[in-house]
Structure formats: C-alpha cells, structure tokens
Amino acid sequence: MQPSVSIIIPAWNEDEKIIETLHSLHVLRNREGKEKWNEIIVVDDGSEDETYEKAKEWSDIIIRHSQNMGKGASLESGWKKAKNEIIVFLDADLGPTANLTSKLVAPILEDDMDMAIARFPKVNKKAGFGFVKKLAVNGIYWLSGYKTTAPLSGQRAMRKSLLESISLSDGFGIEVGLTIDAVKKGFQLCEIDIAFKHRETGRDWAGFKHRGKQFISVSRTLYHKWRDPVC
After folding, report:
1. Which residues form the Glycosyltransferase 2-like domain (predicted)?
2. What is the pTM for the complete model shown?
3. Which of 22, 81, 90 is nearest to 56 (CA)?
4. Residue 188 has what pLDDT?
5. CATH 3.30.70.260 fits 5-227, yes or no
6. Res 227 pLDDT > 70
7. In 3D, which of 86, 39, 83, 84 has the Cα closest to residue 62?
8. Which DSSP category does 117 fall into?
9. What are phi and psi of 123, to 5 degrees?
10. Which tens digits make up the pLDDT trace of 132-191?
11. Could you tell me if 156 and 132 are in contact, meaning their C-beta atoms sit under 8 angstroms apart?
C-alpha cells in the first residue's frame, strides 16, 4: 500500500487565491482517493485579510499564527503537525494547477527519491535579471556540489525523515537551505518539470523590491550554511 500524503500550504494574505488552490487539491483528492491524499494543512501566518476564514472550510487542519513569523516558521508548524510519511510543500497561489501535485509526489513513490522539486515552465512575462537565481544556483553548488536548475522552487515533496534530520531556514532562503542540507545529509534529490503556475513579479518597483529582499535573504542563508554546515 502506498504511503499517504500531507500537504502543507503556508499562507499570508492569500484570500484571493487560496480557495482556488484548495479546491484544485480537492479535485485531485476526489480523482485519486482520499485515503492517499488525506491531509491538507494550511498555516495562516498572521494574515490581515480573510485567508483564515476562507481556508478553514477547505482544510483538514488549519493553524493560525498570531503574527507574521515567516515562511520557514509556517512550514515548520505545518509539517510537525502532519501525520503522514510524505510531506508536500505548496504555495497558496497555484490555483487550478495545484491538482498536478501527484506528479510531484511520483518520484518519491516510484523512484525511491527523498525529495522532488518542481521546475516551472518558462513564462512570457519579463521578470528580473536572474541575479537571485544565479546566486542560489552557484551557492548551492559551491556548498553541496549539487547542480540545480530550480533552486528557489517552493513546490517540493519529501519524506518526513528528511525534515526530521535538518532545520529549516527562514525567509526567502528557505529552499536554498533545504537543498543544501538535504544533499549534505546524503538524501537523494531530483527535479521534475511540472506545469505549475503562480503569481509572477514583473519589472516594476514592487517586483524589484521583492527580489531585493530575496537576494539579501538567500545571501544570508548561504553565509550561515557556510559558517555552520549541517555536517
């Protein structure tokens, strides 16, 4: 019998998108069986909108932080509450493409991988200039020897034993830290192309501000992983 899956969705002010994402996961559940997809956990990270109220009806478990604590803390709260052997991290804004999550879990079930990372398709919209991604790619390779093409992807499936052996970083550097620690601990990782879609930042002030924060956070994570390696 295949192991069951717990899906963890961190959410901060996502009331416009989260219902569509959760509804899509219920479509997946109805298609493939609730016995396998039996736990959807939403972590409302101190939202100031109606994220909690809207997500409550569509979640098996909902956790509410009294204040914004960051993505790392949200994922930590979620997976530690999970009961299943396979843990999936998903963003709250995947919308109807969330029902593709079965493709993300497949390498864990079929190929004996410990972590699968989703590679998003290319988008037509011009975003940044790639500085953050290059920093993350080079930093991960320098510190772990792993060559990645999706260093910042938050859509990941993994075994709970992997999470139990490391500590999650915080901020926008969480995926970078997770990749480095997993490789250095000897876990098997793979990347897989999945047609997920989510909110894209553009070449406007909000987009550059977001990527600036991301660059700083990834730099900080790389520094800490260099100074205090997991092993």
Report:
1. 6-141
2. 0.92
3. 22
4. 97
5. no
6. yes
7. 39
8. E
9. -115, 155
10. 999 999 999 999 999 999 999 999 999 999 999 998 987 778 999 999 999 999 999 999
11. no
